[in-house]
Every structure is written in structure tokens, then in C-alpha cells.
Design goal:
two-stranded antiparallel ribbon, 3 domains, 27 helices, Farnesyl Diphosphate Synthase, Glycosyltransferase
Length: about 650
């Protein structure tokens, strides 16, 4: 009953924040700007005073909802906003409108729009924000004023995270923005410029972006960071101006984000402590001396990568699969003799535990329990029995582990192609993502089920290859000591003149190219019949492997303080949110009378007709406010209105 009430409350979020959060925030943002009579943007070499860009305000609102992890509650409203702005961009392109391309505000907006649109699957070209590379005068200005343009360059750098293969201008934009951000940090470190005087913690935010690749970050932790750094959510910043949505009296939005995060945390803690750890103890995985006990690591990675509270069955099933994969892989690598491994692999092929004993029997029984439970749940959802398909998926994994163990124990040296063909299976990334996809999206087409019979789609094959190569770049030293081979060691063996560092660089270069191909297939592959939610699951598993193996092997160590701290933050530690810092009034210089008098009256009338009047009409139609609901483990205050008016009706 409690869970039903929680889900019911969460489903009311679209109706509960009408006018209190988004509309009130947007209206006050506009009225404050009108009151101040100007926007002062970036101290550009052209006129520094611009009327407010309403599209930018909307994009900033969408960006903030994404950062706070609230998009699941406002999907329809966000889609309408983005569709409107997207077609406005397309309309300007079709009419060949010459835009002012020497405006830092325009570059900020275009790079923000590019990132949001591309992440949502819109077809956008890199020229949408890379136009500044062809404007030498503007580039020179940015280089000379890298401190005041640092917010713009940070947005450009973020946009380049979503780079596709062959987009060389995006590579140039990334190099340019990265160079200037490093330069700005150096100037700040010498006390010649204070980032944080306008935007709190901006210096830390820039360092974080440069240090931590987007592809290696998990959503749930990202949401926590932005909630705790709420004062850093800048709309734009220049030498003398700074607008941030989060301080425009939107405490309700912060409160909602906090409650939403706490709600997810309570679910994750319950699933880990009361379901996963008990399952591990049930099969004795915590007492196998040869095996890595990775229950917490496995669950943390799956839960924090998706940040969706509603898919409990999916999270626990995939986490159990990851735990079992770790134990079975260790058994094949370190514990079992070749004879024992063949017996276990044969039992999996027959799906019969006869002849098994000890660790082999425990592993098989746990596998059978997992597959049976999964097949029953899928049968309940879809009415289809896919037991044989799932068993085939695991048969393939166990045979790949046996093949690799045979190579190692018999000192057989495979070719690179042979190794990758087997290694892409043995990494089992596809096992995790296909199991998750079936439970998360019951409407998956039949082609996904065919993937269980080894007919993998391109996006799945790219995921398998990238995850295998990532693991190889961080595990080659350990595997060399154990007498095993991987892609790095095979490349060195096939190219005697190349040192091991060169082979690592060679494999990382392949990973970089495949990363771009993978992102394009996830975000833009309209030929694939795979659903958007399934593609984003591929992206989640991709980011999990990047998190574990991008810079070091974080999965095989229990002493990595950062990942241990991340686990605590994701599941156990409460949010550390400080009171908002006051908005600096001195950052708004007064304009000469002749500048502000010309358009003030006309623009005030436009604002009133577009926002204030509809908002007033809405207030007149508002009904009684329904009081809050108290929920035991995750208290959630819900303000709901009786009338079912769209959240962003007037905002759009």
C-alpha cells in the first residue's frame, strides 16, 4: 500500500507544481529582468545589451530539470518545449536568416540547445554551435577574455561530449574550449580572477568537467551533485552579469528534487540491503574465497546508471546477473581445473546439474534460479515463454569462458580476430543489457528476442566490443602475470617493435572511434527498430563500464576511496544542501536613460500579454490546494490541484 501511495504521489507531480514551480519561476525570471530593464551578456565586442531571449530561458529550465533528475515527471511538457524551439531553429535555417554570430550569448544558447537536442534524439548538425570556429575576430576575442567567457566555453565543451564519427569541427571546438578553460583555471589560480565571485563553486565545476568524462558518469550521482551545488546552476555569466534560475525564488523546485532523490535512495537502500545481499548469502557467494564479492558494486552500478525508481525487478535481476557473472568468471579464471570447467560448461549446455558438486553446483543452481525467476516475470508481463532464449544467452557466456580458460591453460595463442570474437561474448555486457531491456520495455519488438540467438544489432555489438577493449586496457598487467592474453598483449605480440604503452594507445584509439559510432547509433539511428528506452539502456551499461575501466580498474579493488564514497552518496548518505546564497545585486549596472527608455514600455506590454495575463487567468481558475501526504520511509510533500491543467501550458 505504501509503495502504491508513493507511485501515486509521484504520478501527481505534473499537476502538483503548476504555477508554484515552473510557471512562477519563469514569470519571476521575466519580471526581474524587465524590472532591471536589460540583460548584460558577456561583455562582447558588439553592443553588450540584449533583450531577454525567451528560448534560452526555456532551454535553461529544461537543462535544470534534467540536472535535478526530474525529467521523468515532465516528459510531455519538455517535449513540447523542445519541439517548438527545434522547429524555430529549422525555420531560421530554411529562411537563411543571417544571425549575429559574434555574440557570446548566442554561442551559449546554441551549444546548450545542441546538447539537449542531440541527447533527445533530434537531428542537429554540429554547425549549430561550431559556427564560431569560422569567425576569427570572435575567436580572438574569446581567447583574450577567456575568464569572462569561461561559462560559454564550458557550455561548448559540454556540447562536444556528444560527438559523432567524422565530426571534425566538433573535435576542434572541444580542443579550443578545453584549452581556454585550462587557461582560465591558471589565471584563477594566480588570483588574477575569481570564478566564484559570481557563480558559487564555478572553479570546482570547471575542474570537474575537465577531470571526469561525461561518458564515465552515472546519472544518479550527477543529480546529487547538481542538487547540492544548486547555486552553480547558472543561466549565463559574463564580466558583469550573472543570471541563475535556481536562485529566482524556486525553492519549491529544489525541494521537489531533494524529495525525489531521497525517494530513490530509500528504494535503492531497501533493494540492496534486503534483497541483493540476502540472495548472495543464499547461494554462498560471500564465502567463496576465490571469488570477488561484488554485490554492492554491482547493484550500485546498475541503480546509479539509470536513476529510475520504478524498475525494481529490472535492477535486482541485472544486479544478480552481474554478481553471478563475477563469481563464475573467477571460477573459470582461478579456481577450477580444465576438467571441472568442462563439466560445468557441459551442464549449462544440457541445463542439467547432474554430475556437479561443490562450487560448480552452487553456480549452476544460482544460475537456474535466476533464469527461472526471470522467465516467469517475463511470462507475466508478455505472455511469452522465453526460457530457452535466456538459457542460450548464458550457454554462450559459459562457452566463451571455457574457450578463454582453455587458451590460458594450454598456452594456446589465438589471433586477434579469434580473441575478439570470444572476448566480446565473455565480457557479458550484452547479457546484462538484453535482460534489462526485456524487463524495462515489455513492448520490445521480436528482433530483440532474436538477439538472444546471437543475431545482435549494431548498437549491441558496439557495446560488446567497447566494453571488452576497455577492460583489456586496465587488466593487461594482471592477465600477463597470470599467463593470459588480451587485445593489448596480442597487439604487442603481433607488433614486436611496439612497446606496451604503444599497444595501449592503439587500443584506446579504437575505443575512442567506437565510442563515437556507438553514441550515433544510440541517439540518431533511425533505421534501427530498437526502442529509445532500450537504446538508452545500452548507454547506461556503456557508462557503467566506462566508470569502472576508463582510467583504472575500479571494479577489482576494494580500496578505491572515490568509488566507495560514490556508493555511500548514491545509496546511504543524506543530501548536503546548504541555504542558497543571496543574488548579487551589484552585478547589474544601470543603463543610460536613452538605452532603457526606448523599448521598456513596449517590452513590458509584451511580457504582460504573454506571461502575466495568462498566469492571472490561471490563478483565478485555481481550486483548493490538497494538503501533503506523509510517507514513512521517503516523506514526499505533494501540492496537487483539482483542475488538471498542463504544467507548462502558458510557459510554452
Amino acid at each position: 500500500m505504501e509503495v502504491s501511495l508513493i507511485y501515486y504521489c509521484m504520478s501527481l507531480l505534473r499537476n502538483c507544481i503548476i504555477g508554484i514551480i515552473v510557471r512562477k519561476l519563469y514569470r519571476k525570471c521575466i519580471l526581474i529582468i524587465v524590472k532591471k530593464r536589460y540583460l548584460f551578456c558577456f561583455a562582447c565586442p558588439v553592443r553588450p545589451l540584449y533583450p531577454m531571449d525567451e528560448e534560452l530561458i526555456k532551454l535553461c529550465m529544461v537543462n535544470q530539470l534534467q540536472r535535478f533528475g526530474l525529467t521523468e515527471h515532465f516528459k510531455d511538457e519538455i517535449e513540447r518545449i523542445l519541439e517548438q524551439i527545434y522547429w524555430n531553429y529549422k525555420d531560421r535555417e530554411s529562411k537563411v536568416i543571417v544571425m549575429t554570430m559574434n555574440s557570446a550569448a548566442q554561442l551559449y544558447k546554441d551549444s546548450l540547445a545542441f546538447r539537449i537536442f542531440r541527447m533527445q534524439g533530434y537531428n542537429v548538425s554540429a554547425s549549430m554551435f561550431c559556427w564560431f570556429l569560422n569567425d576569427e575576430k570572435f575567436r580572438n576575442y574569446i581567447e583574450e577574455n577567456c575568464q569572462s567567457c569561461s561559462a560559454v566555453m564550458l557550455n561548448v565543451y559540454r556540447a562536444t561530449d556528444l560527438m559523432f564519427a567524422g565530426e571534425y569541427e566538433v573535435e576542434d571546438a572541444r580542443s579550443f574550449s578545453k584549452k581556454l578553460l585550462h587557461k582560465a583555471l591558471q589565471i584563477a589560480s594566480s588570483n588574477q580572477f575569481n570564478f566564484d565571485s559570481a557563480v558559487p563553486n564555478f572553479h570546482t565545476m570547471v575542474e570537474y568537467e575537465l577531470r571526469s568524462p561525461w561518458i564515465a558518469r552515472l546519472e544518479h550521482l550527477e543529480h546529487r551533485m547538481w542538487i547540492e551545488q544548486k547555486d552553480s546552476n547558472a543561466c549565463w555569466m559574463g564580466k558583469a552579469s550573472f543570471h541563475r534560475l535556481s536562485n529566482l525564488q524556486n525553492d519549491k523546485l529544489i525541494q521537489l528534487a531533494m524529495k525525489n532523490f531521497q525517494f530513490r535512495q530509500s528504494i535503492y537502500k531497501h533493494e540492496l540491503d534486503h534483497q541483493l545481499k540476502g540472495w548472495t548469502r543464499k547461494w554462498g557467494f560471500d564465502n567463496m574465497s576465490f571469488a570477488r564479492e561484488k554485490t554492492t558494486f554491482s547493484y550500485f552500478a546498475i541503480a546509479a546508471s539509470t536513476a529510475l525508481p520504478h524498475y525494481s525487478v529490472m535492477r535486482t535481476t541485472v544486479a544478480k546477473a552481474a554478481i553471478l557473472i563475477t563469481v563464475a568468471d573467477d571460477f573459470f579464471d582461478m579456481e577450477g581445473s580444465l576438467h571441472d570447467l568442462r563439466i560445468l560448461a557441459d551442464a549449462v549446455q544440457r541445463w542439467d546439474s547432474n554430475g556437479l558438486s561443490g562450487h560448480s553446483k552452487k553456480i549452476f543452481n544460482a544460475l537456474d534460479d535466476l533464469v527461472t525467476d526471470f522467465a516467469i516475470k517475463y511470462l507475466q508481463y508478455q505472455g511469452i515463454d522465453i526460457t530457452n532464449h535466456v538459457q542460450d544467452l548464458w550457454r554462450e557466456a559459459f562457452m566463451s569462458w571455457l574457450t578463454e580458460a582453455t587458451w590460458s591453460k594450454t598456452e594456446c595463442i589465438p589471433s586477434m580476430d579469434e580473441y575478439l570474437q570470444t572476448g566480446m561474448i565473455s565480457i557479458t555486457a550484452h547479457t546484462l543489457v538484453l535482460l534489462a531491456a526485456c524487463l524495462m520495455d515489455p513492448s520490445l519488438p521480436k528482433q530483440i528476442i532474436k538477439s538472444f540467438s546471437h543475431e545482435y544489432q549494431t548498437v549491441t555489438e558496439l557495446l560488446m566490443l567497447i566494453c571488452r577493449l576497455l577492460n583489456d586496457t586496465q587488466s593487461y598487467k594482471k592477465e600477463q602475470e597470470q599467463g593470459k592474453l588480451n587485445s593489448v598483449l596480442l597487439h604487442t605480440r603481433e607488433n614486436p617493435d611496439v612497446k606496451i604503452e604503444g599497444s595501449v594507445a592503439y587500443v584506446k584509439d579504437i575505443i575512442d572511434k567506437k565510442n563515437k559510432e556507438f553514441l550515433e547509433h544510440v541517439l540518431m539511428d533511425y533505421q534501427s527498430n530498437m526502442s529509445k528506452s532500450c537504446k538508452h539502456l545500452h548507454l547506461s551499461i556503456f557508462k557503467v563500464f566506462q566508470m569502472f575501466f576508463h582510467s583504472c580498474n575500479r571494479y577489482d579493488t576494494d580500496s578505491d576511496k572515490q568509488i566507495l564514497q560514490d556508493i555511500q552518496k548514491a545509496i546511504y548518505l543524506p543530501l548536503a544542501v546548504q541555504p542558497s546564497k543571496p543574488w548579487k545585486q551589484h552585478s547589474f549596472p544601470q543603463l543610460p536613460h536613452h538605452v532603457r527608455s526606448g523599448w521598456k514600455k513596449d517590452y513590458q506590454l509584451r511580457i504582460n500579454s504573454h506571461i502575466a495575463l495568462p498566469f492571472k487567468q490561471y490563478q483565478n481558475s485555481r481550486r483548493n490546494i490538497v494538503a501533503l501526504h506523509q510517507i514513512s520511509k521517503s516523506p514526499l510533500q505533494v501540492l496537487a490541484y483539482n483542475n488538471n491543467i498542463s504544467l507548462l501550458k502558458n510557459f510554452i
